[in-house]
Amino acid sequence: MNNPKVLSILNNAKIFLSPEELKELALCIDKEVGRPEPRKIRKSKPLQNWTLESVTENLLATQFKSKRRS
Question: Could you write out the three-class secondary structure of the chain?
Fold first, then answer.
């Protein structure tokens, strides 16, 4: 939360609402706006042999792709 308006509203809500009312507000916001979908966690690949050839092949395959213009 970096938005100053949102932080101000939250601080005001903490001052003027009881804990039960804050929970109810949170439920209403979740219902109206929805929760963000959880991020997918990438599974790590098993370690490969770190030879000069494998590093060079990986770099050529990933870092130096030709840029296609549309």
Answer: CCCHHHHHHHHHHHHHCCHHHHHHHHHHHHHHHCCCCCCCCCCCCCCCCCCHHHHHHHHHHHCCCCCCCC
Two structure tokens written together for 4: 């100053």
Give the pTM. Answer: 0.44
CA angle at residue 39 from 37 to 43, to 5 degrees? 150
Whole-angstrom Cα distance, residue 58 to residue 2? 38
* pLDDT for the residue numbered 65: 64
Amino acid at 35: R
